[in-house]
């Protein structure tokens, strides 16, 4: 029976010199859900700092590889990068001499590359056992209030739990050390809600815009890559030319980026 897998992961680092795939072990609890293109949280460096990463590949391993660090969490339920986007990301990394994550941040929506983690707290033992535990030397009401909040097995962000109970870092640390609470750091990804628009408002191009559009349509019809410079001051209507060009291309069954 397969006990674990090894993932090659691109880690979020600003240093090109160490920007390479790293091997991490993914344990049985997340083994079935991990796929290339998913974001993960991993320990990185000598300090094992919680760092964002992207799974590049998942491979089976016949035996445990000593020394491999384990993935902390896999926040995604499905890949955020397809195989094509992963290939594009690597092409951009080589073409523009940047890190994998620098390229990634130009592909994903703002904040989706993962720029912070959220510490979630939950009970580390059975609720009845937790109540017995705090009765031994933890007489302050705040300890019972904390157990009351998580007694049903749900996880609560540490910041929210502290706000609701008045607990401070020392209180949380004591409960974690006793095993009453357990903590998990998960990635927080802000996904902006993109409004679904209707048809673009109608507009009429002036003579200069129409002339520029005609030239661009001719270039787009060629079977070889071409470049063009659309010159105009701010507010001169360059965007309207782009929109009409894209509409023309889409009507022909092609794509535009």
SSE diagram, text form:
Layout: E1 5-11, E2 21-26, H1 28-31, E3 39-44, E4 49-60, H2 83-96, H3 100-107, E5 116-123, H4 127-134, H5 141-150, E6 156-157, H6 158-165, H7 169-178, E7 181-188, H8 207-220, H9 238-251
Antiparallel strand pairs: 1-2, 1-4, 3-4, 5-6, 5-7
Q: What report would you give on this structure?
A:
The chain has 257 residues and is α+β, with helices and mostly antiparallel strands. Helices cover 35% and strands 19% of the residues. It is built from nine helices and seven strands. A four-stranded antiparallel β-sheet has the order 2-1-4-3. A three-stranded antiparallel β-sheet has the order 6-5-7. A hairpin with a 4-residue loop joins strand 3 and strand 4 (49-60). Helix 2 crosses helix 3, helix 4 packs antiparallel against helix 5 and helix 8 (207-220) packs parallel to helix 9 (238-251). The model has no long low-confidence stretch (mean pLDDT 83).
> How many separate helices?
9
Distance between the termini: 45 Å
Q: How would you spell out the order of helices and strands?
A: EEHEEHHEHHEHHEHH
| Multimeric organization | single chain
Q: Stretches where pLDDT falls below 50 for ≥5 residues?
A: none
The main pleated sheet reads as: 4 strands, antiparallel
Supply Rg. 26 Å
Average of pLDDT? 83
- Estimate the global geometry from the Cα principal axes: elongated
State the total count of DSSP E strands.
Answer: 7
Estimated structural class: alpha+beta
Q: Kindly report the spatial arrangement of strands forming the biggest sheet.
A: 2-1-4-3
Helix content: 25-40%
Strand residue content? 15-25%
